[in-house]
Amino acid sequence: MEFTSKNLNKTLWIKQTDQEKNRLRYKVDATGKTLGRLAVDIVKKLTGKDKAYYSDFWDAGSFVIVENADKIVVSGHKLQEKVYYSYSGYKGNLKSITLGELLQKNPPKALRYAVRGMLPKNKLRDARMKRLKVMKGTTTKYDTFTPIMLYK
Q1: Are strands 132-134 and 94-98 parallel, antiparallel or unpaired?
Q2: What CATH fold (topology level) applies to the domain 22-149?
Q3: Could you tell me the pTM of the whole model?
Q4: 3-class SS string, the chain
Q5: What's residue 8's pLDDT?
Q6: How far does CA 145 lie from the centroid of its chain?
Q7: What pLDDT does 3 receive?
Q8: Average pLDDT, stretch 57-77?
Q9: Residue 126 and residue 124: Cα distance in Å, rounded?
């Protein structure tokens, strides 16, 4: 296609209803995958950056199902040194938990923290996070999704 002054600034417009119908579904096996590298690939699928009609103000992303989140690998000394904080707003109620403790207690939550931190901080972030399903082991709950394999 040759670019001329007529078609240089044309934007591909796709209706929101068509985007909703055509959302792809990816299933990820997190066994042996590094936490950060896995989160980057998940964010690309949730935001829709792999699609030709990606735009930052559209929610054109896909569904992502992550299995075996309890078998995620972390490199370096992050298990002891990386700390997550939560503060309720009351005096003296600052709670902290290390990544190692979080991976033992609730492994899906650690992956959710990583993905949420990598998503753009805008109105679309909560809708994108709803399309992320993270499980400890394997499950048959989402077998009706007919997924495309992202990782094996």
Answers
A1: unpaired
A2: Ribosomal Protein L13p; Chain: A; (3.90.1180)
A3: 0.84
A4: CCCCCCCCCCCCCCCHHHHHHCCCEEEEECCCCEHHHHHHHHHHHHHCCCCCCCCCCCCCCCEEEEECHHHCECCCCHHHHCEEEEECCCCCCEEEEEHHHHHHHCHHHHHHHHHHHHCCCCCCHHHHHHCEEECCCCCCCCHHHCCEECCC
A5: 62
A6: 17
A7: 52
A8: 92
A9: 6
Question: What average pLDDT does this structure show over 97-118?
Answer: 96
The confidence score (pLDDT) of residue 4 equals 59
Tell which wins on pLDDT, 42 or 12.
42
How far apart are alpha carbons 143 and 59 in whole angstroms?
A: 24
Model confidence at 137: pLDDT above 70: yes
Cα separation, 143 vs 66, in Å, equals 12
Domain boundaries, the chain: 22-149
Q: Are 43 and 129 in contact (CB under 8 A)?
A: no
Asked if 26 and 20 count as a contact pair (C-beta separation under 8 A), the reply is no
Which residue is it, tokens 């579904």? Answer: 25
Q: State the amino acid at position 135 in one-letter form.
A: M
Spatial neighbors of 127 by CB under 8 A, at least 6 apart, are: 59
pLDDT 10s digits, 29-40:
999 999 999 999
- Please tell me the predicted confidence (pLDDT) of residue 6: 63
Q: Where do we find the tokens 């075996």?
A: 68
